[in-house]
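re: ur question from earlier - yeah i can do the single chain one, its not a big deal. heres the input i used so u can compare w yours
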Amino acid sequence: MRRPWATREQSPFPAPVPAPEPRAALASDGPPAGFDEMYRGRRIQGEPVAASEGQAPESWRITVDGRPLGLMRRADGSFLSMVDHYQSYATPLAAARGAVDEIGPLQALSGRHH
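and the output i got, formated as tokens:
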């Protein structure tokens, strides 16, 4: 079947976005640092969880306005949040910011992980 458009620029479909390099965004010289920031009027806090607490290596405890945000590590090293299962992020902070973008200014996290 012949496409009605001649080039990729004329295609009605968006160009695929390359996946980020997740490992490059994490420090390899020791344990990753936590974060505490305001993003779009929301307080995002995150800290790495030690493997001795029964968590997988490089697990994170993330909160948005004091409510827990479930975060999962994907096999490729990227992260996804329980708010947005379809987007991968290179770092836990980027995943938390993506969750804030998804919930918007008026909605709060439920506080449940699943």
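Residues 22-27 have pLDDT under 50 and may be disordered. not sure if urs matches, ping me
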